[in-house]
Amino acid sequence: FGIFAESGKDILKNPSVVLPGIFLFLFTLGFSEVGGRASHLLQTTPSNVAWVVFSFAIFLVVGGFVSAGLIGMCLKIVKKEKVRGNFFAAAKKHWFANFLILILFFIFFNLINLSLLVFTKIMLGFQNYFVVSPRVFRFFSFLIYFIWLVAIVIFLVYSNFFIVSENLGAREGMRESFRLVKREYLATLSLTI
User: Minimal CA–CA distance to 93: which of 112, 68, 113?
Assistant: First the structure.
């Protein structure tokens, strides 16, 4: 619990560190509202799909920008350096690499959802031959999700941090994250779970 107390002290000393999170939260709410209204105005499926792709890309760009800036601010706080102005410096420099990592996370989570969908279809196809209780179904669904998490996604967890802290590109950030997780797998797994 000491790490949480120390983080709380750092936030109290540097309250501006919460502003990017508040901005991202408000942006998400506002953009969701605009997206909901805009989707009702679009009459065709292609225009709805284009709107979803466009709005999701905007959200990932903003998310990459904010996460890069926030990581840069937090690094300055940890190093006991001045935080002012660091958000935009880190965000401008690393937003695109963070954007690429967010796209990769999105792809992996969609692959997880696809594998869960395939599992569900298989179970529905076999329901004439045997019945699986909802508890067993939920257990195996969780197991599929967990396997994806511990086998693939976990190795990318620190990519954004390496990109900003070590001034790396997306590929190098992923490589460093993979090396760290490989070396400290159990510790990373316990933090992730």
Answer: 68
Tokens of 189: 């797994």
Q: Which of 62, 68, 71 is nearest to 25 (CA)?
A: 62
Q: Determine the distance from the C-alpha atom of residue 52 to the mean position of all C-alpha atoms in its chain, rounded to a whole number.
A: 18
The answer, yes or no, to whether residue 42 has pLDDT greater than 90, is no
pLDDT at 85: 75
Q: What token pair was written down for 77?
A: 């706080």
The pTM for the full model equals: 0.79
* 162 close to 173: Cβ distance less than 8 angstroms: yes
Residue for token digits 């529905």? 124
Helices (H), ranges, the chain: 2-13, 19-41, 45-78, 86-125, 134-151, 159-165, 170-183, 185-192
